[in-house]
Amino acid sequence: MKSSNSRPSRVGRNPFVHKLKFTVTEKIKIGLMSVTVFPVRLLLVSTLMLLAWPFAFTAALGRSDFVIEPQPWWRRFIDLCLRVIMRAMWFCGGFHWIKVKGERAAASEVPILTVAPHSSYFDAIPVTMTMCSIVTKLESKSIPVWGTLISYIRPVFVFRSDQDSRRKTVEEISRRAQSGGEWPQIMIFPEGTCTNRSGLILFKAGAFIPGLPVQPVVLRYPNKLDTVTWTWQGPAAFKILWLTLCQPHNPMEIEYLPIYTPSKEEKENPALFANNVRKLMAKALELPLTDLSFDDREISLARGPLRIHDLSSLLEFHQLVCRLGLRAGRTDNVLEEQARRARKLRGDRQSLEDFAQFLNLPVTDTLTQVHSLFDQRGDGQIDIRHYIIALSTVHRPSKSMETLKLAFKMYESEENGYVLEEELAAILEIMLGVKEVELSGLFLTLDRPDSAKITYDELHHYIEQHPYFVQDCLDFQNHPRKFGPPKSCNGQKHNKED
């Protein structure tokens, strides 16, 4: 599979991974703080959170989640009390001085604040300082104590079990945003997930669909030891809390950037609006843009014996598939059915029109881009099996052996279940995201007469015996092995990632 020249791939450091390394001095400091400061801070933070609960519970009594109501004096008093209590809680947690730059615009001017990067549950600090509404999953409401505090700020709840959840969420955001400032401002983290702040991932369009002015807000944690980052692969939630409370001081900066008013073109194209705001925020943060989205996290974190080695082409393919609307219907059963139909074609190459008919989709620019990714010869014809292998790879990136088995079903001969060497090379090139896979080393070690073909069971057994199969038994363009031929595949342990 080849990459499109329509846009460069900018992946860089994986934003969904956070690794902490401590010096000996830092370990000693954490050890001392763990038995002295940490217990006191944890007690104070817990006490203040419990103290905030009855205020939030009382203020939420009898209040509608859908109709804006006048704020009586006692609710305004409770709001002030909650702000003081929550600021004291963060102070006790080590966030002594929170630097605020710029000025927050009034709700009547800007109904939506877009905040990035989103990297920690400590990003709740600006929420508690402003008491803005947020967008959060419905399950957050049931969290003891904290759920009551979340309910108090009247968030837009996302019902993940509802198939129309995304549409309803966007409609509710638009309804509140167009109220002329009657509803509280909505603070939205458009990345949609936590990252390690190495770059800004793609923004979701929800905050930009109303087409109204937004105020970008950027967050910084300029601490030397990053204990606050909580993302998909890294320290767990309690470890983050423990390490952060063990730091003498946790600096934080909140900067309100100038209001961004969309152009006519941006109002009609929320994705363009979102991307232009992202560029503005990345410049203020001095961070690179990363062409990954929340939906790409599983691909970038894939593990297994045949994990993806080069993400660029598969990530581009995945984003195009999502634009085609095929993500929701991409199930194992659909893949099996498509593989069965592809097998009947016996490798017959498909034109763009044939491809559209196979997928039961109209010919569009996006479909044309997908088709071109698999047009290796440049003759406008593709092998549909390559598309299905790529689709299975991005659908279940951590289940590479299932994708391999599906590929064998499409390629193997009916008589003996063999796949030829050049066919296996094509399969692995797509699954690994690499080019020019060389399998001579593998087939030389099989030690049997039919050295140019292999069955799935034989290859599966071979991979089980050689856990570093890709590193040691394959050769391809830009292989991590810097020099020398493939190793003897003796299955010895290596100090490498799987």
Automatic annotation (TrEMBL):
Pathway: Phospholipid metabolism; Lipid metabolism; phospholipid metabolism
Domain EF-hand: 399-434
One cellular component term from this protein's GO annotations in UniProt: membrane
InterPro entries: EF-hand-dom_pair (IPR011992), EF_hand_dom (IPR002048), LPCAT1-like (IPR045252), Plipid/glycerol_acylTrfase (IPR002123)
UniProt xrefs under Pfam families: Acyltransferase (PF01553)
Superkingdom of source: Eukaryota
Compartments, as annotated in UniProt: Membrane
GO BP term (any one): phospholipid biosynthetic process
Keyword Nucleotide-binding: no
Alphabetized UniProt keyword annotations: Acyltransferase, Lipid biosynthesis, Lipid metabolism, Membrane, Phospholipid biosynthesis, Phospholipid metabolism, Transferase, Transmembrane, Transmembrane helix
Gene3D superfamilies registered for this protein in UniProt: EF-hand
Claim: Manganese is one of the keywords in the record: no
TM stretches of this protein: 30-57
Record-level Gene Ontology MF annotations: 1-acylglycerophosphocholine O-acyltransferase activity; calcium ion binding; lysophosphatidic acid acyltransferase activity
Protein family according to the UniProt entry: Belongs to the 1-acyl-sn-glycerol-3-phosphate acyltransferase family.
Listed PANTHER family: LYSOPHOSPHATIDYLCHOLINE ACYLTRANSFERASE 1, PHOSPHOLIPID ACYLTRANSFERASE
Name the UniProt record assigns to this protein: EF-hand domain-containing protein
Lineage: Eukaryota, Metazoa, Chordata, Craniata, Vertebrata
